[in-house]
Structure formats: C-alpha cells, structure tokens
Design brief:
The protein contains seven helices and six strands. With about 180 residues, the chain is α+β, with helices and mostly antiparallel strands. The protein starts with 11 loop residues before the first strand and ends with a helix. Bound molecules: zinc ion.
C-alpha cells in the first residue's frame, strides 16, 4: 500500500506485533520518501456466502443497515447499531471460519438485538425467521416474557430479603423453610 502522507508507492516494515488473541497483526511502517511512520492492521478476511451461492466480503455497514429498518421509531442510536455490528463481527470471527453463511449472520444478530430493544428484535425475527401467523409472534413474546421475569426475579433478590425482615428473618434460610413447609405430604 502507498504512504498515506505522500502517497509514495512503497513502505518498509519496522515492527510487527500479533494481537493478544492472535486474530490480527499490527505492522509499523516507515515511508522511505517522507520518513513518516504509519500502522497497518492485518486480519483474515471474512466472507459471506449468500443464498444464491455468491460470496461477498463481510461488512459491518451492511449489518447496521439490515437492523436499522427494524429499529425505526425505537430508542436505538447509530452508536448502538455500530456496537451491535461489531459484536456480530466478533461472534462470527470467533467461530474460526473464514466463510460464513448469510443465515448464520441473522442468528448472530438476534442475541445482541434482543438485548438492545425487544420490539426491534421481534420485528427482525419475524422477517428473518419468516413468522407467518399470530402464534409465531405469541411464541416469541412468551419466550421474551419468561426470560424477563426470570431476570427480574434474579435482580430483585435483594429486595425480597428486605421483605423478609418483617418476619424477623434474613437471608435465604427462611425462604427455604417456607418452601418446604408449603410442600404437600
Ligand atoms: Zn511518505
């Protein structure tokens, strides 16, 4: 590649360093003409195999574009989309494969999108997983609700302990007693 300062067509590598996880190499280069230094980062290219069989380079921009539509009218910023696209790329790269099916990208989007915004997630999932009935939406919403209730129960653990103070108890022990007392037989 040419020097980014003077566009001289050649450069000399003065230092190479592999990233901690081994997925990229940074090279410090020096231009023999203007003597300025710059850094290049080398990563394995990630290709997407489309359903038609055509292969194209992975693009974070395309991920963001694909999700943006599902986020219309939702409190999701461009920064959120950029972070999501980055997480998707990290997930795909961690699979260790240089070629990714377009279908797998959709799967990798669902997780982080659900954390970001549940409505956008439902919109995206309905297209990606080809929901074709109300039952499909109901099933997806049931899963979201169950997960949310589980999360809320876990995070309200401290609050539940406060409630137990009225009964003179503290910590998980009284709760355990109550549970076993409630069991029939
Ligand atoms: Zn130069």
């Amino acid at each position: 590649m040419h020097c980014p300062f003077c566009r001289h067509p050649d450069s000399r590598v003065v230092d190479s360093r592999t990233s901690d996880d081994g997925s990229s190499i940074r090279r410090r280069r020096q231009c023999p003409q203007c003597n300025r230094r710059f850094t290049t980062v080398e990563t394995a290219s990630l290709s997407v195999v489309k359903r038609s069989g055509v292969t194209e380079p992975f693009s974070r921009e395309k991920i963001a574009n694909g999700v943006r539509k599902a986020c219309q009218g939702r409190p999701v910023s461009e920064d959120d989309l950029a972070v999501l696209a980055q997480r998707v790329e990290e997930t795909l790269r961690s699979s260790g494969s240089a070629e990714i099916d377009a279908y797998e990208i959709g799967l990798a989007i669902l997780g982080p999108l659900r954390e970001l915004d549940e409505v956008a997630y439902l919109r995206f999932a309905s297209v990606y997983q080809a929901f074709d009935s109300l039952e499909d939406f109901e099933a997806a919403i049931t899963v979201l609700r169950a997960d949310r209730e589980e999360r809320e129960e876990r995070s309200s653990g401290a609050a539940a302990d406060d409630g137990l103070d009225a009964e003179g108890g503290s910590g998980p022990a009284p709760a355990g007693t109550a549970a076993s007392a409630a069991q029939p037989g």
